[in-house]
């Protein structure tokens, strides 16, 4: 690409592309996945599932997410993305509609698993496609803004559940998310498929993308750190409203308000961490991110009740998207010629540890433990993540050492 082409992209086009990516993440990651969190207490109250079954259903969804990310590792080229992205959005819409008709736990779990596969593919491929498009235009620093869709989506999901809580029940509670997904998925997919991102020679299938290892002395600490992040944040992001229901009296505003707090805190998170990473560097930013996120999960353990719930919602909501976007940028900086592939590998690892979180919670509850004490798993995981984040080398310094 000639140098002058890097500067000919209009702000309107940049906004349109980022909005399309944000819309797709809103659809699959909040209307598909995280809406389950505020729905869970209602589904339990409706008698559709109990708390242990709810954890199992969540685990199946996260298993699907892991498998979707692994699919994206195998089929990571631009031409693969153009095929799998619309297919995955179609699967999301169909499984969302199916969930409105299912009451049996086994069938609900199967639907959530398939929906998770679609989520994993889209969550890898949409941001990866946009990042490659932005890199060609010297606008990579804007890449984190695509995750604004998750923050907006959490607010949307909270509103959909709360506003329809009194006149829907059981499987019917999935209808608002299913209906809203259809036009949003169509527009976002159509916009991203129109992007000018040619298949580069190293992506032509000759194996060039496999040159160099994804796992080396620079990237292994990053992967280990990200594993801690996935396990650490997923407990409050899955069980915070249910924890509120267990800790607070009927009618307390935090029964619905805890998820609203998470949604509001998440709303500016992508912008904050994208801007902070550009200003002080992605590595210092992600270390600070882990400290704040750790304090959030710890608050739910140390101060059970309104104080802990509010602090957890604010601090985790403000940080978890920052972990994602900063880790993705650091990973690509360490392996600049394997962008979509390393993105998929990171998401696969994140997906695995997110699956482990609800599974460990289920085992703990079956052993007689409490949901409150299960949050210590998240605390330990985030301590792990912080320690390994401190061991990730500066990408520029790392490449300079390798070139000597």
Can you give a write-up of this model?
- With 404 residues, the protein is mainly α.
- The chain has a single domain, classed as Up-down Bundle (Growth Hormone, Chain: A).
- The chain has helices at 11-34, 36-45, 51-74, 78-99, 105-135, 148-163, 175-193, 219-247, 254-266, 269-280, 282-302, 306-334, 339-366, 371-389, 395-403.
- It is found in: Membrane.
Radius of gyration: 20 Å
Order of helices and strands: HHHHHHHHHHHHHHH
The CATH class assignment is Mainly Alpha
Percent of residues in helices comes to over 70%
Sheet-strand content, in percent, reads under 5%
Name the shape in a single word.
Answer: globular
Query: What would CATH call the homologous superfamily?
Result: MFS general substrate transporter like domains
**Total domains:** 1
By helix and strand content, what is the structural category? Answer: mainly alpha
Secondary structure elements and their pairing?
Blueprint: H1 11-34, H2 36-45, H3 51-74, H4 78-99, H5 105-135, H6 148-163, H7 175-193, H8 219-247, H9 254-266, H10 269-280, H11 282-302, H12 306-334, H13 339-366, H14 371-389, H15 395-403
Helix pairs in contact: 1-5, 1-6, 1-7, 2-8, 3-5, 3-13, 4-5, 4-7, 5-13, 6-9, 8-9, 8-11, 8-12, 8-13, 8-14, 9-12, 10-11, 10-12, 11-12, 11-14, 12-13, 13-14
Membrane topology: Multi-pass membrane protein
Transmembrane segments: 14-36, 56-76, 83-101, 113-134, 146-168, 174-193, 214-234, 254-273, 285-302, 308-330, 342-361, 373-394
Subcellular location: Membrane
